[in-house]
Design brief:
The complex is a heterodimer of chains A (225) and B (639). Chain A has 225 residues and is mainly α. Chain A has eleven helices and five strands; from the N terminus they run αααβααβααβαβαβαα. In chain A, the strands form two sheets. Chain A has a two-stranded antiparallel ribbon with strand order 1-2. In chain A, α4 (80-90) packs across α5, α5 (97-107) packs across α7 and α7 (132-143) packs across α10. Chain A starts with a helix and ends in an 8-residue tail after the last helix. Chain B starts with a helix and ends with a helix. Chain B has 24 helices and five strands. In chain B, β3 (75-76) and β4 (81-84) form a beta hairpin. The longest helix of chain B has 42 residues, at 417-458. Chain B has a four-stranded mixed β-sheet. The chains are: A mainly alpha (225), B mainly alpha (639). Chains A and B meet through α3, α4, α6, α7 and α8 of A and α1, α18, α19, β5 and α20 of B.
């Protein structure tokens, strides 16, 4: 009851203020309660030596990466929208929002909604210079949307659908809904050894290490920086 | 590709590792960075002022001068810098474009100088950022109009070989070209004035005969006025017919405003001639005389100011419309209120709402005739509110109209709102084309890229990779990324046109599969995906369009033949195997196709994309996929 009364009182005060402003002819422009607090989130990464020790990159490579990164994000952090825009530039034909969202969550280890340079560069060093087991670990993390250690069929379907969405509409053969489910089934057939409907990290790593194709393709980006 | 993309490309490529476990085919090889040089500083000397930037910054836009090898022409060996003999101030914006990805237009810069700089450095002005684009377009338009005005003044040069008709038209449009034209101009002006004065004087009561009321002059001197009218109308008719004859496009002339005014001016006379004897329509005849006053509009050919006024009103049509609309709304509201307020008082003039309209209009325009006056207190209050609001509503659109008039007066121009819309549409379509160009560039380079990969594989490692002029390292990396995506999802990008085509064709039709010329491409034949690409090379001995149904069975046989081929041959899993296919085996393949009849509709691997044009084919056979067969093939080939 009292909250209603308080609200009523507040409205009344606002109304009288409004009338007073009307009568005295003051301009409406400076509303104190609508002041925008400029939230300038500025973030500085750790220094170069520390990053060098944490990652497999050389000093020059880190410099190059950071210069490019800072140019794009002067504030020092990447948020999800920027990520989405970047991916939209890379894959203009399709809809990259969902994939960017999954990728963002995979990169964002501490789940604080923004990516700092360290998070990016650590993951990058794993992906480009790490062992195959680390790479597979990262991939598993990507597919495991709720990060519970299992990949269920739904999670796989969502991930695969987002990857297919990157292609867009003008593809051949025309994408059918069944195709993605088919792909999911094939994946589970391959990876789910004990056929319990979920894929755990060990099953995943085991199966991938046995597959020559996958091992081969994990190495193709090794010279990306 | 935009600058932003370049910085993020390593991240996107690294993230592509996430596709690897779910892909069923091996990935294409990454483009190699042959010249892996350290990022170096480049010095750009622009008329003495030195700018320095990283090489990679300039490489972001490979289709501009600074981003391509074209800048090598400006390299100065002694000082080890690039020298450009251009304006350093304008160069600042150009270089900032490379740094930030956004092109800005500085306000102090002359528009044509800026355009020249952009053209020199190979940057299209359409990518000017939204913050500066409006300014840029306005300045450009002003400039263009000014130039066009200068040109129009030189338009009166008499061309040789103008025939009589063209001369006449020129004389009509521009009286200063010859003496005859000038004489004609003044004569018609004089007669328009005479005609208007006649119309006016006709109605003046002049001299009363003793036992009669005042008669207007028109009825007193009927004959004189009739002669005057006839003379004027004859002159106007002759003038109209001459203009009609001389007009280059008669249809357009007849639709123009001035000719309509001419017609309306002379028509009542002729109609009057025809209908004088009928008493019933004499009322209508009198009404027609009103239209004679339109003759005064003929003066607009003689007066620049009248024309400008006309243009102003036309260009402010929306403001005038708004004024009218808001006035109408206010009138209705206040009339209703006044009517109900005054209903109570006796002997009130406000008999109905439409009757109150008159009061409202007179009050809102602050005329205040006083023939209708509110008597109740409520009526008076609302009446005062009405007059106050009238002032406001009428005063609001007036400054817009005034500024419009002054602008038109100073520049003497046509309606530019229409042109602004067209420019916006053109700009958007250009940007869209540039965006589509990137995806088309990918499809284009796929065809080129495979040649390169082939050369890379078969040829010597030391040979320089023949990269086409337009594909930079960044672009090739971007294309490689898209290629990986295709492989992961086992679908392919096509143009939009081809996609439309495929949608309309019968999906059940099959099409000829790989041709013997497989060997010329990277051997994905030995590796299998679950789908087959439709971009297959047409069989050399078949024509796609006519023999579709015939191909059906043949196609299937081919498929299965290649299946068997796959199973039989020990596949090395990579490209080398296909390269070792002899020509003999190729023809054997074909022969075998005719003999074997199998029922397996299995889908072998996609052939690599052709480098010579695209095979238009109908899409895949429907999803009667025997997945077990394909997975077997996968296992076998992955030795």
């Amino acid at each position: 009851m009292s909250s209603r009364r308080r609200r009523c009182k507040r409205q009344l005060i606002k109304f009288t203020q409004h009338i007073a402003r009307l009568i005295s002819g003051t301009l409406k422009s400076d509303n104190e309660d609508e002041e925008l607090e400029s939230t300038t989130e500025r973030y500085q990464p750790e220094n170069l030596e520390q990053l060098q020790s944490q990652t497999h990159f050389s000093r020059q490579e880190l410099q190059l990466l950071y210069r490019g990164f800072k140019n794009e994000c002067p504030s020092g952090v990447v948020n999800e929208d920027t990520f989405k825009n970047i991916y939209a530039l890379f894959f203009p034909m399709g809809d990259s929002a969902k994939y960017a969202y999954f990728l963002f969550n995979a990169f964002d280890k501490d789940q604080n909604g923004s990516l700092s340079f360290e998070e990016l560069v650590c993951d990058l060093s794993v992906l480009l210079r790490g062992t195959t087991e680390e790479k597979l670990n990262w991939a598993f993390n990507l597919y495991d949307i709720n990060k519970d250690g299992h990949i269920t069929k739904e999670e796989m379907f969502d991930t695969l659908k987002s990857i297919y969405d990157l292609m867009g509409k003008s593809i051949h053969p025309r994408l059918k809904d069944e195709a993605v489910r088919q792909h999911v089934r094939m994946f589970f057939q391959k990876m789910d050894i004990n056929q319990d409907g979920v894929v755990t990290i060990d099953e995943f790593i085991d199966c991938c290490q046995k597959d020559e194709n996958i091992m081969q393709s994990l190495k193709i980006f090794d010279n990306a920086v | 590709m935009a600058a932003g993309v370049a910085a993020w490309l390593p991240f996107a490529r690294a993230a592509a590792i996430g596709w690897m476990p779910v892909a069923n085919c091996p990935m294409p090889l990454a483009p190699r960075d042959q010249s892996k040089r350290q990022d170096e500083l480049i010095v750009l000397n622009v008329s003495g002022r030195r700018f320095q930037t990283w090489r990679t910054t300039l490489d972001r836009y490979p289709d501009t001068l600074l981003g391509s090898t074209e800048k090598e022409f400006f390299y100065n060996e002694e000082t080890k810098e690039y020298f450009f003999d251009r304006d350093p101030d304008a160069f600042r914006s150009v270089l900032n474009f490379y740094r930030t990805g956004k092109l800005h237009y500085p306000r102090y810069e002359c528009i044509s100088a800026y355009d020249e700089e952009l053209a020199f450095f190979g940057i299209i002005p359409e990518i000017i950022g939204d913050c500066c684009y409006e300014e840029y377009k306005d300045r450009k338009r002003e400039n263009a109009e000014r130039l066009m005005d200068d040109q129009e003044e030189n338009k009166d040069v008499k061309l040789p070989n103008m025939n009589f008709r063209e001369t006449m038209w020129r004389a009509f449009e521009n009286p200063h070209t010859s003496t005859m034209a000038l004489v004609f101009y003044y004569v018609t002006g004089f007669f328009i004035a005479i005609s208007v004065i006649t119309n006016v004087v006709e109605t003046v009561p002049c001299g009363s005969t003793p036992n009669q009321k005042d008669v207007p002059c028109g009825e007193r001197y009927t004959v004189a006025f009739f002669c005057m009218d006839t003379a004027c109308v004859m002159i106007f008719t002759v003038e109209y017919l001459m203009r009609l004859f001389a007009a280059p496009s008669r249809y357009r002339f007849m639709r123009s405003v001035m000719s309509i005014i001419d017609v309306v001016a002379i028509l009542p006379y002729y109609i009057g001639l025809v209908m004088t004897n009928n008493e019933d329509v004499s009322g209508a005849f009198v009404t027609l005389r009103v239209f004679r006053v339109f003759r005064i509009f003929k003066f607009s050919r003689h007066s620049q100011g009248l024309r400008i006024l006309g243009y102003t009103l036309k260009s402010c049509a929306s403001e005038l419309g708004f004024l009218l609309f808001s006035l109408t709304m206010a009138i209705i509201i206040f009339a209703t209120v006044m009517f109900y307020a005054e209903k109570g008082s006796s002997s009130s003039k406000f008999t109905s709402i439409p009757a109150s309209f008159w009061y409202t209009i007179v009050t809102m325009t602050t005329l205040g005739y006083g023939d209708m006056v509110p008597k109740t207190i409520a009526g008076k209050i609302f009446g005062s509110i009405c007059s106050l609001s009238g002032v406001l509503v009428i005063a609001l659109p007036v400054p817009v109209i005034v500024s419009n008039f002054s602008r038109i007066y100073h520049q003497n121009q046509r309606a530019d709102k229409r042109r602004a819309q067209k420019v916006q549409k053109a700009r958007l379509s250009r940007i869209r084309i540039a965006k589509m160009g990137s995806s088309n560039a990918y499809l284009q380079s796929k065809r080129n890229g495979l040649f390169n990969e082939l050369l890379y594989l078969t040829g010597s490692e030391g040979e320089e990779l023949h990269r086409s002029k337009t594909t930079s390292l960044l672009e090739s990396q971007h294309h490689h990324l898209l290629h990986c995506l295709e492989k992961t999802t086992a679908h392919e990008f096509v143009d939009e046109q081809m996609y439309e085509q495929n949608c309309t064709e019968n999906p059940l039709q099959s099409f000829p599969s790989q041709s013997p010329s497989l060997s010329s491409h990277e051997g994905f034949t030995s590796t299998c995906c679950s789908r087959r690409s439709h971009k297959s090379i047409p069989l050399p001995n078949s024509s796609m369009s006519t023999t579709h149904t015939h191909m059906h069975s043949q196609g299937l046989q081919e498929l299965s033949a290649i299946d068997i081929q796959c199973v039989e041959q020990p596949c090395h899993g990579t490209s080398r195997s296909s390269l070792n296919l002899n020509p003999n085996e190729k023809s054997q393949l074909n022969n075998r196709a005719q003999q074997i009849t199998t029922a397996i509709i299995s889908l072998p691997s996609p052939p690599p994309l052709t480098s010579d044009g695209v095979g238009h084919g109908p899409p895949n056979p429907p999803a009667t996929i025997s997945t077990t067969v394909s997975s077997n093939i996968v296992k076998v080939s992955a030795l």
